[in-house]
Design goal:
Layout lengths: L1 H6 L4 E4 L10 H14 L2 E7 L12 H7 L3 E8 L9 H18 L4 E6 L7 H9 L7 E4 L5 H9 L4 E4 L4 H14 L5 E4 L5 E5 L5 E6 L4 H11 L5 H6 L3 H6 L17 E4 L5 E6 L2 E5 L2 E2 L8
Parallel strand pairs: 1-2, 2-3, 3-4, 4-5, 6-7
Antiparallel strand pairs: 8-9, 10-11, 11-12, 12-13
């Protein structure tokens, strides 16, 4: 897996579980996160999964965030036919627990929200922001390409909105451009959902097939924003660098080049191809040649 990360130009990632928290576990996720850090990149993780109550390592979401160095928040699914259909009160309690744990441990302490295609969209989250003192930063909805209007509303309330590069970078770029035109730019981030399942749904949400998301679409979407949607390259790149680093509260350690930064660096060729990758000051790819691989890679 490390070689895939490097080729995609990724030097920092956040791992999380999806629909399946039975055959895949929080324990496995946390172990993989620690392994990736040992192999030379920076990796964080989230406790929980689609379901509620959240599966955890220590028995509570708060303890996972406080006592596991790499754990910075919790995952949950909303507005999706595979979710646990949490109530407003349940979501408030989860966000409050994550917030308190974040304050204690100096971490973001946020709820990462897989947002499905149900008509409820972000209505519950917006309601919580408007009726409780919980700051918007503790809710991080993703997959918002299918909910641009709701995303824009949430961004204007001060929240971060995340778009997924998906199978079609050109289509993703088009939807992100819609958000850029209507939202505060510094509230927009981009993720790849890499190695996550990409189901093919038929009528009545019947599963017809499944594939795995690719990390390479992350940079492909940045290029599509620049080349097809006319967004300046340095601005498009910010969605996966400076903006997300600030959202995860790791800026300026990540997301920029300053004296106190981690020396994560991409060097591009004439055609904006990724040729060199440097992570934490170590060269991992030189002129498109891999210099590092994972422990179990040939």
């Amino acid at each position: 897996m490390l070689s895939t990360v490097i080729k995609a130009g990724v030097t920092t990632l956040v791992g999380l579980l999806g629909t399946d928290s039975r055959t895949r576990s929080v324990e496995n996720l946390f172990a993989k996160t620690k392994a990736l850090n040992e192999e030379g990149i920076t990796a964080y993780c989230l406790t929980g999964a689609y379901e509620y109550p959240s599966p955890t390592l220590t028995g509570s979401v708060g303890n996972d965030i406080i006592f596991v160095n790499e754990c910075i928040g919790v995952k949950l699914a909303i507005s999706d036919h595979r979710s646990s259909n949490v109530t407003k009160e349940e979501l408030i309690r989860l966000a409050s627990e994550a917030r308190i744990a974040g304050l204690v441990s100096g971490k973001p302490g946020y709820v990462h929200l897989h947002t499905g295609a149900d008509k409820a969209k972000l209505d519950m989250v917006v309601d919580i922001i408007k009726t409780t003192p919980i700051p918007p930063k503790h809710f991080r909805p993703t997959h918002l390409g299918r909910n641009v209007e709701a995303a824009v509303e949430f961004a204007k309330l001060g929240g971060y909105i995340d778009f997924t590069s998906g199978e079609n970078p050109s289509q993703s770029a088009e939807r992100i451009k819609e958000a850029i035109d209507q939202s505060p730019f510094d509230r927009i981030t981009l993720s790849s959902d890499s190695n996550g399942s990409m189901p093919k749904w038929g009528p009545n949400w019947e599963l017809e097939g499944i594939a795995a998301a690719k990390m390479s679409t992350l940079y492909e979407t940045v290029l599509a924003l620049h080349q097809e949607q006319g967004v300046p390259f340095e601005k498009a790149l910010c969605l996966g660098t400076e903006n997300i680093a600030k959202a995860l509260e790791v800026y300026p350690k990540k997301g920029c080049l300053k004296p106190e930064s981690d020396a994560d660096l991409l060097i591009l060729g004439e055609n904006l191809e990724i040729e060199w990758v440097v992570a934490k000051g170590k060269i991992l790819m030189e002129e498109k040649k891999l210099l590092a691989k994972g422990m179990y890679e040939d």
